Amino acid sequence: MLFSGSSKKIISKFYSFELLEVCIHRVRSCSSIRFIKSKYVCVFDKSALKFSHQQRLFRTSAVSCGQIVQFKLSDIGEGITEVTVKEWYIKEGDSVSQFDSICEVQSDKASVTITSRYDGIIRKLHYNLDEIAYVGKPLVDIEIDASKGVAPEEDVVETPPMSHEEHTHQEIKGHKTLATPAVRRLAMENNIKLSEVVGTGKDNRILKEDILNYLAKQTGAILPPSPKAEIIPPLPKSETLPAAPKDKARKIPVPVSRPIVFSGKDKTESVTGFHKAMVKTMSAALKIPHFGYCDEIDLTQLVQLREELKPLAQIRGVKLSFMPFFIKAASLGLLQYPILNASLDESCQNVTYKASHNIGVAMDTEQGLIVPNVKNVQVLSVFEIASELNRLQSLGSAGQLGTNDLTGGTFTLSNIGTIGGTYTKPVILPPEVAIGALGKIQVLPRFNGKGEVFKAQIMNVSWSADHRIIDGATMARFSNLWKSYLENPASMLLDLK
User: Fold this and answer.
1) Which residue among 45, 155, 345, 471 is the active-site one?
2) Residue 252 has what pLDDT?
3) What is the pLDDT of residue 360?
4) Nearest 5 degrees, angle CA 313-CA 316-CA 317?
5) Does the annotation mark 169 as catalytic?
6) Which of 145, 295, 467, 495 is catalytic?
7) Is 210 annotated as catalytic?
């Protein structure tokens, strides 16, 4: 190592020998170290140590041995160009491995968990919470080992939503789903998100049967019954669960209490997430000429039937509400009136009749109004519909419904009665052509065939249809058929397949 005479004097005068030891150590560990101050430059290299000029004070800065990769947000489908960052699972300086969760983002259709495709250290988060992230733009900067290298194309986009990484590492709110590699591979091969499958194994582990059952619901295929899905015979009357008292105390609605904060200023918020989707959908719905039709349904027999079946459903781990019966009856009616399960193109020149009955159910969640749909209702039993509804409601409450759950609907039912009200005017969800809104069930006096007054369980229904292709008579006939199935539940057995 060579020094000029003046440089040797400067070093001996202003720096101790320990500084040289530190410098030599850094020279050995890195290919190049630069000490810079103003216009005077000192460069240490493995082969030589040279000073370009005398200088009293030095500042050091080491060249990083790692490579910074910009991890960009990829296209997550459905024409989505922007998402809202809802939660970060990491922070700057954290170490991450491949498939670790980075963040959760929400589009106007669904929530998606983004996972890492690199091993490295997080150096920069490009967005704060609730900020808008754009497809194709950097999401985070990750420092990786330069010796491993990165393919140029991997720098451009983040893992696609249905790629191998996502299937083998699906997560809900940052928690890994439990599944064996064979089950994960089966899900990947069939393009299924593990986060959308309800596990029936220990600790909610996803089994092979769960994947096959989920696949059958999506494709309409009928699989042989699994040993775990065997039908349990009803319990003897002496062992049946105690029936709830008939005269239940009237429920008084409790107002939602929120702390009152008076800031004295107006507040402006951006329309994001599901609210943004509602703006688009309802604006498009204004172009549809709506036709309305209302009626009342006597659900007395259905209420009795449900009370008998509820204990059996509970034993099988499913909560049985009235909605599965409403959905199945609607599907049977759509078989007779397929025009209600159709769509009209934008030019109003072609009508497409949908083969699958993907019946949507409007849900009120913390994120806003969402309408997931039960796929292929025409091949599902009432119990299977109830099981699928339980899954959708669980994911909806957690804000984890996938894009597949929220798209592809062909007909919709809105159970506004769970909140209150009798009649309403539902708005059609394009490109669908019909929707029904169900009011609350009330105990009201009615007359039987003999003119005697009896206590009846009455529910009101309000239908809306696209009057461009559906006339009033068709809507009324469909409603009458749907009504007959619900007022006489046993009649559904005649048309079940």
Assistant:
1) 471
2) 62
3) 95
4) 90
5) no
6) 467
7) no
